[in-house]
Design goal:
By secondary structure, the chain is an alpha/beta fold. The chain has a single domain, classed as TIM Barrel, CATH 3.20.20. Helix content is about 30%, strand content about 20%. Strands 3-4-6-7-8-9-10-11 form an 8-stranded mixed beta sheet. A 3-stranded antiparallel beta sheet has the order 2-1-5. α3 links the parallel β6 and β7. The longest helix has 18 residues. It is globular, with a radius of gyration of 17 Å. The chain starts with a strand and ends in a 6-residue tail after the last helix. About 40% of the residues are buried. Bound molecules: iron/sulfur cluster.
Amino acid sequence: MLTLATVNPGEPEVFSSLQGEGPGMGRPSVFVRLSRCNLACRWCDTAYTWRFSGDNRPHRDDLAFTRADNQLALSEEEAAALILAHPEDRLVITGGEPLLQGAALARTVALLKDARPALHVEIETNGTVAVHAALDPLVDQFNVSPKLAHSGNDAALALVPERLAAWAQDPRAWFKFVVETPADLAEIAALQQRYAIAADHLFVMPEGTASATLRERSRWLAEEALERGWRFTDRLHIHLYGDTRGT
Ligand code: SF4
């Protein structure tokens, strides 16, 4: 079984959209959002995947979500059928932290690749969880977003050395660092150096869930990216649709 997030109670979050971030930005894709996360970022824009009633880890909006309304368990066959109802040849598996459900995800993606062999499979991850052995060969791209100190997570949980070293060596992995203030950049530079992350696989992206915030932060962040030889990514979906589910 896979545990998905919901757009509305009882409605799984499977949708067509343009990929909003990173190397695939602007590509038509079908998305599936899985529930649950092992981290707790204080600015997380999908806290409805993990901050269920009783979870009091800090979050800037201090919202609590009802588990029954925000999660939905589906069989691998049911999830695959919902995804295949969308015509796009690119799948983005996002969350939450999708790799927490590696075994079920492997079974789901195997069904999808049987039905649509050319399907390009992309997984968005916070980079802390090893990829399930059965899932790994089925994935074409990993968008790895390690969480910096400003996320509020303990570095011992958020920055796992053996995982970061492995991602840095994997040509399928693209790093995407969320940046809130210029003070975050030294931490990224240190990680780049420590793990020998290739500059052309390193994106910086402004934190923000409103166009005005993204535009303000993009001005100085784009300059910094240019200076440091990093890549820059906006958050296209926020400009197009705002901070909404199913987009
Ligand atoms: S790792 Fe991603 S899903 Fe998890 S809390 Fe952080 S931003 Fe949210």
